[in-house]
Amino acid sequence: MIIFDHVTITYPESIQPVLRDVSITIPEGELVLVVGRTGSGKTTLLRAINGLVPHFTGGTMTGRVKIDGRATSTHAPRDLADLVGVVPQDPMSGFVTDTVEDELAYGMECLGLAPEVMRRRVEETLDLLGLVHVRSAPLRSLSGGQRQRVAIGAALTSHPKILVLDEPTSALDPGAAEDMLAVLHRLVHDLGVTVVMSEHRLERVVQYADLIVIVPGNGEQLQVGTPSDAMRVAPIAPPVVELGRLAGWHPLPLTVRDARRAAGPLRDLLVGHTPHLRPISTGARELVSLQSASVSYGSVRALCDVSMTLNSGEVVALMGRNGAGKSTLLQALVGIGPAPSGTVRVINKDPRGISSRNLLASVGLVPQEPADLLEATSVAEECRAADRDANVDAGTTRALLALMAPEIDDRMHPRDLSEGQRLLLVLCLVLAARPPLLLLDEPTRGLDYPTKARLARILSDLADAGHCIVLATHDVELVAEVADRVVILAEGEIVADGPTSDVVLSSPMFAPQVAKILSPQVWLTVDQVATALDSRDPIGAAG
Amino acid sequence: MLGSLRPASSFREAGGVGSPRLLHPGAWWAWAIGCAVAASRTSNPLLLMLLVVASSVVVHCRRPDAPWSGSFRLFLRMGLAIIIVRVVLQVAFVAGQGNTVLMPMPGIVLPTWLAGIRLGGDITAEAMLTALYDGMRLAAIIICLGAANALASPSRLLKSVPAALYELGVSVVIALTFVPQLAADIERVQAARRLRGRPARGIRALAGAAMPVLEGALERSIALAAAMDSRGYGRSGHVPLSHRRAISTALLIGLVAVCLGTFGLLSAGIASWLSLTTVVLGSVTGIGAAWVAGRRQIRTSYRPDPWHMAEWCVLASGILAAGVFVACDMVGVTLSTATYPPEWPTLPLIAVAGIVVAASPAWTAPPTPVSRRSAPTPESVPA
Known about the structure:
The structure holds two protein chains of two kinds. Chain A is α/β, with parallel strands linked by helices. Chain A is 38% helix and 22% strand. Chain A has a six-stranded mixed beta sheet with strand order 6-7-8-3-9-10, sandwiched between helices. A six-stranded mixed beta sheet of chain A has the order 15-16-17-13-18-19, with helices on both faces. Chain A has a four-stranded antiparallel beta sheet with strand order 2-1-4-5, with helices on one face. In chain A, strand 11 (286-297) and strand 12 form a beta hairpin. The radius of gyration of chain A is 24 Å and the shape is globular. Chain B has one domain. In chain B, the strands form two sheets. In chain B, strands 1-4 form a two-stranded antiparallel sheet. In chain B, strands 2-3 form a two-stranded antiparallel sheet. Chain B is built from twelve helices and four strands, in the order αααββββααααααααα. The relative contact order of chain B is 0.18. In chain B, strand 2 (107-109) and strand 3 (118-120) form a beta hairpin. Chain B is mainly alpha-helical. The longest helix of chain B has 30 residues, at 166-195. Chain B has helices at residues 25-40, 45-62, 71-93, 125-151, 154-158, 166-195, 203-230, 241-266, 272-296, 309-331, 349-359, 361-364; strands spanning 101-103, 107-109, 118-120, 123-124. Chains A and B meet through strand 6, helix 4, helix 5, helix 6 and helix 7 of A and helix 6 and helix 7 of B.
């Protein structure tokens, strides 16, 4: 179905090819997962399938990509539109029309299908993806999960044989992500569609894949294999695989269910041990206090009667589905967005009353789109500007950046950094003034495991140094790793608030994989298990 | 040209007033253009105000529940701004004509080598009124078009655009949707400035926001273009290049001819038979070229908006309103209000009748369907 024949792709103005001599064949009806670090060329590989690379991006391609017999060198993306459906990473960016129904029909209109056929397929697709009740809704009013499903539906109505998705679950909460993957699973099984997708959160998708393509980056050879083979050697792996590697299970389990079957002996080994938790610093002081705070956007209530306090040295995770009010809460703490009713106090001050110049001395927020904060044309310039803004000695920010991301070059343009590097740069810019309260909105979107691990370490260190950190996130594994306390929001109200292990273990949706495997014992991360095994008996871990 | 023109067997069955549905956008735009033409023929402040009221009533009664329908308020504000700017310009540059001095002001006449422009001068009632009426006329035209924008978004109109003009239409619509997006981006980036500890207001803040906003807009347009291409936008049957060029040229000539002719018709100085001939010839050329080009397109349309009795009613009310005003002008019923010397505006009954007709879509158009956005979604069911 998809044949890459000695394909080498080089972008203009770069010497190194992104992909070098790639030869892979993907048969019909497979669900293929493309994994690799940020910036390794996954997106290039995906976009080469329908000819967007190089027709749209420029650059040179040698070798040949053949899709169901059509070569992309002679067929433009529009001439492959009946064969390949593409779902971009941010669904909103690919929407052409205003409403759900029109969007679903757009591709068919371009292909010139008969009106009766279009009508029937739109109805079928609305049913298949559960979008009937929003069929005439404006696209802007949809939730993240609904948008993602509309984007998939819009690609599906043309009945393509191949569906290409770029990180389809990155912006979704765990529940919406599972729904979306169930839909893909059904497409592969019932309709025989070939699905090629990239994804960083392997814990969500690896069990659905038939084939895994590992893109190592730097133009190195691609590795293709079945999930269990690929996971044995892959540099990045979901927690279930990490635990399997640690415990030496064979065959390596990919699902929680398989792992639970193998986990009996490990559970026995761990009896009598308790997870090592980050000690809560003594002498914590109260940094944030909310008393029946409410925020409304017009007639929509985003936060209702929220009361809580946050203390220094704490890492708090805000969870909840898309649109639950997480971002609104963070914005209220820095004094942007609509004015809240009730009391909001950050270090005994109303954040709306703090002037911009003094804001960073009390609270810093890394927003969902970190790039919004970047204005300068080089990393060095951004750092100097941050020093001036924060009124600290010249070089403070640069030194911080060198500590967190030593590989970032001073001369680079901030827009050319990878997603993860950009996040770390913005984190440094915000941290320059050492705000006691640090807020992060969806920090792990688009981050690979190594970058995420680095971020987790940085956050723990900051908390040890007395910062209070609040993360709004969908990433249960990150929460398990760094958070001391979890607050779950639903419809703008707090529905759960307590220590991480208490809150996440009581919910199947928010429980990390390790907890699911080892329940009823309360282990959250592979690291905790490894530490416990080490302390117990070095030989025991190997057995 | 305007979707499928199917004869309707009966008013009720055709979805007249009874069943809620969205009216064909072409009908709304034709109605609005009719109202705008009517506004362009008069400088009577009472009639202009009545026209604005009529279009506001129609918008209020028949506005769909969609994000773009809030734009009417923006157009009202824009109208007000136009009037103010027009009056201020009058005071600054061409005050001083007429005898009724409201406020004596010093003025200078620039030397002839600077075009002899006159700055300042006594503020007279005559000059102010001329400026006010002029500004009101322009504001009324803008507000009428704003009404169409609120009643039927430009992208809905796009669905009914003839195939040959489709690609041109897409670029216009995308440009239009970028404006609200840009406003949202500026707001977001200004909020982001606060997060870096910089003042969010002021000239420097705006300059600082420009870079990320423009970069974002550029990235988004590239992403949109890629998405459209991947979904088959621009696929077409094989047409030789020379053929395509000939069609485009004919279309362009037709459009220019129609514009020139319309300008001639609306302005009093040019012989009307000449303008009319130009409009007719231009339309024939344009429609012919569009028809030829449309036959080469493979594009089809999903659920084209139907054209029933209600559409005819709305269209007719627009044409009638425009017709009444144009006819009044021709037979000598005065629609302008004299300002030298100033006199009280009159209220010609025939023109008022025309305006009542212009407001009739508030009843003759079908009610808009109620949005189902508040229906429960899977996302709102607790996990």
